[in-house]
Structures are given as structure tokens and as C-alpha cells.
Fold this sequence. Notes:
The protein has one helix and 48 strands. The protein is mostly beta strands.
Amino acid sequence: MISINIKYTRLSLIKLALVLFVGIGSSCSKQEVFQDDPYKGGKETLGVKFLDAEADPSAGSPGDEVTFKVRGVMKFKEKLEFLVNESKADIINVTDTSITVKIPQNASTGGTTLLLEGQSFFGPKFTVQGKVSIDPGFKAVNGTNGVINDIVASSSGGYILVGGFTNFENQAPSTPINRIVAIANDGTYTSSLFRGGADGPIQNINRLSSGKYMISGSFSSFNRTPGTNGVTRLNGDGSLDSMSVELINPRPNNPTLSFDTVPAFNGGVLSSINAGNFLGGIAKSFVRSDKTVLLGNFDFYVKYFYPRSTKDSKIIDITKMSQIAQLKENGDLDSAYNFDPVLKRSYTGTNGPIFGAYMQSDGKIVAVGSFSTFNGAEAKNIVRINVDGSIDPTFSAGTGADGAIFTINFNETTNRIMLSGSFRNYNGKASNGVVMLNSNGTVDESFKFGQLVGGAPNFAAQLNNGKVIVSGDFNSYNGVVRQGFMILGLDGTLAPGCNNTGAFQGRITRMIQTTSTLGYPAVLLVGDFTKFDNKRVGNIVRVEIKP
């Protein structure tokens, strides 16, 4: 038995392993094989380390001096670079246990980083104070488990949310919540008004003067009653507006088969294809007088013919209707709207899907999407439609957008339209995905949208005070770090004091202007987002914006 004394270093262990391996693999070979140390060439430890979890102070405004406890930096004081959420800060003073910096003017809330000789040392989060913050009095914390597509004020002073969710504030499964829920003004869950809800996504909700609601989307039943086909009417208490109809009874000895309870609004749409988030359904709906206008990516209008139906087998009347249709109060197709009386079908409509729209006070509708014509006339991704469904040639869109338009929002106070999408130019003018229009469709050239880096915009809307909210998946705007959310001034530059918030992740679908718990101006944002100002949110948040 042989004993071997070895001083165990990393390199000697590697050599020993290789010697033993070679010796086992080839008993006749006495040659040792050596390899370089795999750890050779690594960067030398600099001895730099943040010492405290918080800065002093832990929050401040641009221009404030803030001290961070960090050791080992004194000997490198001429080489240091300090970032506040990726924005470079001026270094005011350095000791061996601290570094004091001035918060840069365009800084936003986020992590801090010390850069030294190609190495990054990550420090604590720093909160940049400004005019914008999450309203702590809004009590929706977990929010929904799916997208919120629309929001409308309820008669009780709260809101009704619709979308693709099946939970709100962890109420399910004890309380079924299927794509529609009522909440109080402070964001708390109120009650299960809508019982079984919808079996598919709800895209829009309109509150009627009668206190009832019209909902539309991509669903086929509501409260477990089939026959909705993407659109139906609800009573003020959340129940389905229904009626009893007489049917053919193939078994007269069973009188229950002679009648059925069905939606009172007997009309809807179907599609033969799927298109993005709308599942081939309705993207937008409006109610004017006693008629409902539907826009989206559908192909057919459908209606049940109950006199020839049984309880288990319903007869359906189908009419070819492309992307746009108007329905009467009972759900019948309005053949005076975008309808060819000779061919007994709609005119061609748009040659691609409609993603969004808004209705003017005169009943005309401005629609946007991914199309190039409307009823055979040129319409590059935007068109204004008259009250009879024909194209309005007086809308001055010119050559329109050179890419799809995903969102459109109109502000009645400023009389301006905001568009966002994948376009780079609008009517020949550079726009980079966001443009402000006058109500007649011409570009408002006083607003110039700048350069985004890292992604594209997915929402833009103007506030009553003229400021513009934009969301997307971008990282910076005109060279300033803005992570997915920003507030712009009337000219398109970053609004001073309004861009202090940190990272936003997702997209906004709707915005309602309101007031915060303390009475300041605020916006209630809903959509498909999981983070606002570096905080976890559930597709809904109320944001205070101080003057």
C-alpha cells in the first residue's frame, strides 16, 4: 500500500485527475497530460460592494443629492460611473465607504448600478419622486387573471369590467367570474351581478339609456344560455335580457319541449377565420338610438328562426356581412346600412380586419385596422363611415398609414384623435407609430412623436389637459430611458415631472380620466399588463397625475 502526500490546489487537482485518467486508460503509457487552468484569465476582484439595502434618502427628486453606502471605491474614484435606472448621474463625492450622486433630470424609478473597469455592481432601488404615482387608495391589488378589454361606468358609481378573465381579486372559484365583473369606485369587488358570465372573451360593453348593457366579443352564450353569437343585451341587474319562444315539439307528450328561453336580442355574427386577439369576432361596437353597429373581423350575420326550430335543433338564417353591420333593437339586420339590395349581402367593406374605432357625436364612425380599401375605395388602414355605412370622402386621411393601426382614441375636450400602430408614416409624414390628428383626419403637426428604441407603441391617448399617455414595449424615447410607459406634452416631448415612474410591462386597452383618493387628477388604466412602476399589478391600476 502506497501513501501519497499532495498539497491540494485547484491546478494540482486537475493535474492529478488527468494523470490518473491517462494511467487507467493506457497502462503502457507513462506520459502525464496537463491542461490550462480553466479559471485563468478571470477579472481580478476589486473589493467593491454596496453595504446598505437603501440609499440615504431612499427617494428623491431630480437634482437631489443622494448617498449610497458602498465600500472599496475611493481608490477608483476617477474611474467610476453611476447609473440610476440606466440614466447617468453626476458623482458629487466619494469616500471609501460611500458615494454621493446627483439624481439626473430625466431619471426614473429603478435599480442603481456602479460601473467600474468593465464590471457592474448592482445597488438598491431608488424611487424618483415626481408628479406621477400609483394611487394607494385604489384597492384592486391582484386584479384579474386575464386581459381587461373594456370598462364602463355603472349606475351605482362604480365600474363594469369585461375581457378574457375568470377571476378578480381572488374571488374565484367560490364566486364564478367569467369575463365580466362589477367593482366599486375604489377598486373593490362588489358582487356577482353577472352570474355565469360569458363562455368566451368580451371585447366591448355599452351602457344604454334604459340602464341595460350591450356586450360584444367572441362568445356564444351568456349565463349558460346559448344563442348570443358575439353580441347580446343584459338587464341592469346583470341578467340576460331574454324571452320565451314557441318551438316545434317533436314529442307532444312532453310539453316542456314546446317553449324555450332565448336571448331577446336575436342577432349576431360569425366568422370563418380567426384574426389575432379578436378570434374572428367583434372588435368594437356602438349603440346609437335603438341600433347597434358592429365592427371587426367577421363574415356573416346570423339569426335564429324559431318557428321552424326545436329545443335541441335551431334553424339559423345566414347573411353574408363583411367586417361591419348594423342591427336593430331586436337584433334584426338593418338592410339600410352597408347592404347591397341586389346581391342581398353587404358591400365588400374593408379588405382586412378592423382593430378599433370611435363614434363621433354625429353618429359617424372612424375605424382603423389592417386594410387598404373600403367598399372598393382606397382607405389605408383608416376610414370614416357615414351613418348609412358608406365611406365619408370628406375625411382627410390622404394616403393614410403605411402600416397597421392598432388603437384609436378620441378626446372630446381637445377634439383630437390619437393613433398607435406599426406604421412609420401617416399621409407622407414621419410618425414612428404614434400620430395626433385633427378631427377631420389631417395631421396635427404641432405634435411630433420622437424615436423609440427597443420596441413599438401599443396605446396612445390624450388627456383633457393636452398631455398624451403612450404605452408599449420600448426601452427609451429620444435617448431618455422610458420603460414601456410615458407621458408626453402637447409637442410630443417628455412632459416635465411626469416621467418618474419605473418599468411598465404589457399594453393598455382603455383609459378613463378620474380623480385619485386625495382628489388629484388621475387615470384608471385597464388592459393586459402585469407591472406598473416596477410594482406587480393585475391588468388594472389607478394612476395619480398631479398638476
